Amino acid sequence: MIGLPDDIKVALFDLDGVLTSTAAVHRKAWKQAFDDYLSHLDAGAYSAHSRRPFTDDDYLTYVDGRPRADGVRAFLQSRGLDFDDDTVDQIGTEKNQLFLDAVDRGEVEPYPGSVRYLDACRDAGIGIAVVTSSRNGVAVLVAADLIDYASKRIDGNEIAARHLKGKPAPDSYLEGAKEMDVDPAHAAVFEDAISGLQAGRAGHFGYVVGVNREETEEHAQTMRDAGADVVVNDLADLLEG
After folding, report:
1. Where exactly does CATH 1.10.150 map onto the chain?
2. Which residues share a beta bridge with 189?
3. pLDDT by residue (tens digit) across 67-118?
4. Domain spanning 24-104: which CATH class is it, in words?
5. Active site residue: 14, 58, 64, 171, which one?
6. Residue 241's pLDDT band (cuts 50, 70, 90)
């Protein structure tokens, strides 16, 4: 009924891009923060190639699904830019404020298909937890009216407090399975980020679902290569299989 193997007892959901449309909000905030930083770089010290604007490919490759500071470092390194911890904090703080401003403006909505799927999981007796790198996970769940679905949450704050490695390491998902008192082999991971799919594979979870919001076959194949057992454009697709 819910498109999962019979031995799956728990569903571990990423948040942004899987349950809510906030991945697009994150992407917009990252672009504004990075472009602001890049525009102020010394043209004499860095090439135009290094200073070119932040792109959708940059978001998917270096930032999506990762803890905030890890994403900043990965992107700046990809451009060959020199930076220190203060720079990482400056960019991350600006991005976070832009994101929170968007949340305050009401730019957070759940995907209707995801709500249908959450209801189906709950009706089927599947345990539900949210595992997200975002430090704003609770605020997003509340804004999207999804807070009551998740019996456990591992968010960016918990990842930092418990000294867990961020995605693509499997630590946060393994912690989610532990909190739900289930072996990873009996848990399914739901992810839209390549780093999250890699985490699902590295953690040897029983089933890994890729949510392809790009809706292209090229991206679907990239998700399969990263570890997805199945790729859908919307979680409701699993109910129709």
Report:
1. 24-104
2. 12, 208
3. 899 999 999 999 999 999 999 999 999 999 999 999 889 888 999 999 999 9
4. mainly alpha
5. 14
6. low
The stretch 213-218 carries a mean pLDDT of: 94
Distance of CA 27 to the CA centre of its chain: 11
Strand partners, 152: 129
- List the catalytic residue out of 6, 16, 42, 148: 16
Catalytic site includes residue 14: yes
Spatial strand order of the sheet with 10-13 comes to 152-154, 127-131, 10-13, 187-191, 207-211, 230-232
pLDDT in tens, 153-196: 999 999 999 999 999 999 999 999 999 999 999 999 999 999 99
What fold characterizes domain 10-21+109-240? Rossmann fold (3.40.50)
- CATH 3.40.50.1000 residue ranges for the chain: 10-21+109-240
pTM (2 decimals)?
A: 0.81
- The angle formed by the CA atoms of residues 171, 177 and 178, to the nearest 5 degrees, is 85
**Which residues, other chains included, contact 166 with Cβ-Cβ below 8 Å and sequence gap of 6+?**
66, 67, 70, 133, 159, 172
Catalytic status, residue 57? no
